[in-house]
Amino acid sequence: MFTIYKKELYSYLSSLVAYITIGIFLVVLGLFLWVFPDTSILDYGYASLDSLFSTVPYLFMFLIPAITMRSLAEEKREGTFELLATRPLTDWQIVFGKYLASLTLVLFALIPTLVYYISVYQLGVVKGNIDTGAVIGSYMGLFLLGGAFVALGIFSSALTKNQIIAFAIAVFLCFFAFSGFDSASQILSLQKFDDLLLNIGINEHYESISRGVLDTRDLIYFLCFITFFLLLTKTILGGRKW
Fold this sequence. Notes:
single chain; 0% strand; 75% helix; mainly alpha
């Protein structure tokens, strides 16, 4: 598994795709946080990173599919997956190695955003007048959200040989998993199931962690979500043996 992880991570970092994708993510996020008036931190009047943690999930819906779209689709298109499968590796090791490599890139994209926390920490009328505990919880929520989206992206990449199709499927699944169940709970005929639908969706659990409260139910939800889609990915890859 570690061999797959190193190979995949080196493949990402040796191409411009990862750098361009992460660069665009950081530039767009910077525009939302400091330039656009509706979400600008400077217009809030108080030291808060709420706009960062409400904007990043929607940017993740495009960043993470762009990272994961080539993970398995490219292997299938170029015919290298069969060669990979002949090595003494299990399907779980292949899936988990690629998953960890993509998750590492997501972490690389999040680390530079700490500059925004330092900026708000320093710019406050009272230096350090920011809820650091809530920020830490929100970053943990973003990391778990990234892990869930990476699992969806890897799953989407296993469905097709075309990277563009894998990207489109992943964007749809990420959006639906994050916002779709919340929207469905507002439908009049489904309102009696609103609690169930909200608990199935990611947004409810992400917001819970972002408040700075680590509930084991939210952690279990994310772990189960990630495991479920990695299991589906492993099942799809195992289909070649049926």
